[in-house]
# Entry
Amino acid sequence: MNPVFYPFFPYATGLLLLVATVGTATAEPMPDRVEFNRHIRPILSNNCFFCHGPDSKTQEADLRLDQRIHAIAEHDGTAAIVPGNPDASALIQRILSEDPNTQMPPPESNRSLTAHEKALLQAWVAQGVEYQAHWAYLPPQHTAPTSSDAEWVANPVDAYVLDNLNRQGLTPADPADRVTLIRRLSFDLIGLPPTPAEVADFLGDTRENAYEQLVDRLLASPHFGERLAIYWLDLVRYADTVGYHGDQVRGVAPYRDYVIAAFNDNMPFDQFTREQLAGDLLESPTQEQRIATAYNRLNMVTREGGAQDKDYLIRYAADRTRTTASVWLGSSLGCAQCHDHKFDPFTLKDFYRFSAFFADINEKGVQSEGGNEGPFPPYLRFPTEEQAQQFAAIEVDKARINTQLAALANGTPAPSSEGESSPPDPDALKKELRKLTQAQFRLDQETYHVVVTETMAPQVTRVLPRGNWMDESGEIVGPAVPEFLGGLWMNGDRPTRLDLAAWITDPKNPLTARTFVNRLWKLYFGTGISKVLDDLGSQGEWPTHPELLDHLALEFVESGWDIKHMVKHLVMSNTYRQSSMASPTLKERDPYNRCLARQSRFRLEAELVRDNALRVSGLLSTAMGGPSAKPYQPAGYYRELNFPTREYEPDTGENLYRRGVYTHWQRTFLHPSLIAFDAPTREECTAERPISNSPLQALVLLNDPSFVEAARVFAQRILEEGGTTDDERIDFAYREALSRAPLTSEREIMQSLVDSNRARFADSPEDAAAFVDVGESPVPESVDTVQLAAWSAVTRALFNTHEMIYRY
Amino acid sequence: MDPINKYLLQQTRRQFLGNSARGIGSMALASLLGTGQANAAAPDTWKGITNPTHGLPKAKRVIYLYMAGGPSHLETFDYKPELARLDGKPMPTSFTQGEQLAQLQGQALTCMGSQFEFGRHGQSGQEISSVLPHTASIADDICIIRSMRTDQINHDPAHTLMNTGTAISGRPSMGSWLLYGLGSECENLPGFVVLTSKGGRNPQPLASRQWHSGFLPSKFQGVPFQSVGDPVHYVSSPPGIDPAQQRKLVDAVQALNGIHNETVEEAEIATRISQYEMAFRMQTSVPDLVDISDEPKHILDMYGTEGADGSFAFNCLLARRMAERGTRFIQLYHRGWDHHNDLKNFMETCSSHVDQATAALVTDLKQRGMLEDTLIVWGGEFGRTPMIQGNKGGPGRDHHVNGFSIWMAGGGIKPGMTYGATDDLGYNAVENVVSVHDFHATMLHQLGIDHKKLTFRFQGRDFRLTDVHGNVVKDILV
# Structure
């Protein structure tokens, strides 16, 4: 069916005043004109909506402040807000009151207003109480930045940024030097460092468009998809295991490869969305489109004994609902699972109607068939030729036994098998059948496979009061998008996931494009234009550059949802190309770099910390796709797992050196080095990883065999390729690892390390031998192990430097 | 002078001369001057967001003895003569109608009386069953809560609720909240440690989610200790590298980072330098911690351990050693309490692993004067049904959420007290009901934290360990 026209903003009043207002770094003076979305909504949302907001169950004193009509209504002769008259407004009296009995917010709420906030509210009431629909729910608007013609402006991104810098009295930083630029671009676009040759090429490239050439080369690299996939896989909570209880493995890797390929092929984002949510509902879907629907099956599932099917089906539906809203809409719809949303106009009913889109997904709440090692159907299998033959053989045997059993049951003479004369024993036949079924389950699990979405007659969806699955008093609902964003389609057919995808990627949807470009911005500039990446709603952040965010959202839609175009648009800007150095004054004015008078700096993500070391050592495998890889991991790490119990078997050969994006993702026990560097377990949608700095990270870089081996293999390269003198070798090491020559002071330190380690290992060559034995990759006969172990001190030191794991 | 020390010294001098615009924390670099020497200053450590605390803390640390699987309250702390009287008779449907059950869903429900005798113990006369004789000997030190309730009936989500305050994944565990709130008193060891042991019925799995930091930075996560291999992952230097070499390597890294900082002026470098200092210290302090050769035999005997064997008893001893060194939150899981069948037998097995060492830990802390500022908790993720579960072997009990028992001791909790009650059959907590959130609120309160004020903003909302619930159980406080 085609969705009928549906308005996105039934009561948006078009009041968005595009006053040029953006992030400021210092304490704000009172604005001439108070603006609801920028100034007032955050105050009300943070302090008042919890009791006087959209949740119909908690509108204390029958007062809701999120809509003007209710806020100014009279109750018993007084109104919370009297437009134009702060003194007569109960709200103003209450917030100014010193009496704990009447004061708002009440002291026991642990909320309080600053003097500035109180003044803003007073001014807003005095100025007539203008409300605006929340900015993120209004359509993005084209605006014309005033700085478009400035010399610094390479594209509209810069114009919007410069407009704000001018208002703030700030000036852009100098461009970063070329080495910093190529390192930054390489980490950002492909997640790998540039090789010394690539650095030299770029430094020597005198063409005017050298930088653009570099951008284009990196966008065309197959590593681009791997890099961006890390972020997408966090959002959709991709992992190799089911997450609950026994945390068994279930096939998902083909989905990961689908995502990487989609980014590499620059699949339009609307198509990417449609295939994941509803690829199975497309006309004659391709195999890839069916693999894409693994998205709907990535939620945690259980097979714990005693778990009730219905209980878990409802948990899965809720999980999909909150995840889909987070991934595509940047909305915390999940907060409406038990009650109306406290801050945004999502109702309890909206939540369950949204979840009804997924009610046709064929799945079990508790998948117990096949025991601990049984599969999680439905799925697509990719058997090897040998496995296909084994499957066929099992089928033949099962058919034979079933025929025999049927014959026995009918009392007809059993067909003789293998020349036996006596009729077969039915119990023995049944036992054989069970064995075959188990063999089939095992084979199934061993076969490369991916869980997919299969549609069926939709299950009944009820509104669950307080989210309680045993409460059957709630009304039955069908699929619909949140009412305030358009509500029901009324043309009679039951809407499907395909319709949901169409609504999400409708150019009129105000959230989808903003959500995506805001996250892209974070990847390349360190912080979102609106900082809270998974909530563009009332509790999110007023964007520092609202016009820029709108420009990017519109550009994304108008480009045909072209992701690479958007990435290029961002990295071609002069804003992106700035140096990340900041004067002490600028650091004080804008400590979090929200004005972008410089580039930001941040630590590499967990997977890239690994990739970087492996790449520099020369060990990194560039193989793409396939079953997840298992690098070295401390023995016994899975000892708390059961059903079944497990031993981790690291891979061998090239698979030990795959990129981090391919690492086996065990939700309940993620690889310790990934956890240490803040990778999420992917049990829930993660839009922003925390970044921490901990001693455990130091222990990983110092002692994890993956890094020790990489350091040793890097040292091997130094000895083989890095010249013959210590100076040449130190130079080589720096260029390979950090794309630059060492300073004299650094050279002295490295020399001292080599000297002391050489002396020590010469005294105890058995220790050198023990050291170089770490890791599977062989030490060539020709290499002197004492030298190798000594130079490994240099490479370990490099791998542990701040510079190595930081993007400037 | 060795160039590494030369540069470290230079950087530190510059620091002391007030040339500090570079942003290196003086503490961090001062600590480097101690390279391999005894006078190293403490590296920068997180002092907590709740600093000072909201209230006067009664406890400085928590040792949580987590009985994973769900020990039966009816065989331990909740004596029910009426249930014994109805043994073998149908469970009155007034209790179970419309209730969610786990494995007993849809089956005939029959009462089963306690499999152990109860007696009164200590001056307080607390009722404790014969399966926990050592615990009975500390009856006057503990506060038994008989009126716990949870709302998750399957192990996995019930653990998650008990540790994070919700069954939805991705939220910080209570130890992470404590580290975020209070920091750690210990610079050379992790502030939140997890130790595990097993023994009893085929153990249920555990997930690292139970000690994960959720949306808090990962430095607040619990660090699991292993009984085989490195006690902490990657805490040993690579093979063939001696401590002096490793020290020199770390010094070189510190000096290189200091030099790099002169070019890039990056505040995060000071933090990294202090983290490397802590990491290096952990490489010595962790082995020191687990080396119990300095413990006298009578102490080992008291706990019932002979050494590093991965047992609960050994873990209890380590817990005391960590408590002495200032670790904030120490969680010991014992897996094996999921007694769907053969309950009597398995209770005895579990008790043989856990009972003596538990009592020894309380007694040992007490004799060292540490019980008063150490909060000890003993309990599981839920209790077990008054109804029998027939399975292979002897009878057992199914999961039960509506009423179960835990105990708390030390850290300002009233000793020798029984609080709350279930009904006559031990089905529903009916008197002074304590929810998981109430329990969390009480624990935080004892550490000086108002559970409503310890918040972290995530996805636009201020999250708390207690969500939007929780009342401090004031009646059990000294």
Summary: The longest helix of chain A spans residues 385-410. The longest strand of chain A covers residues 379-382.
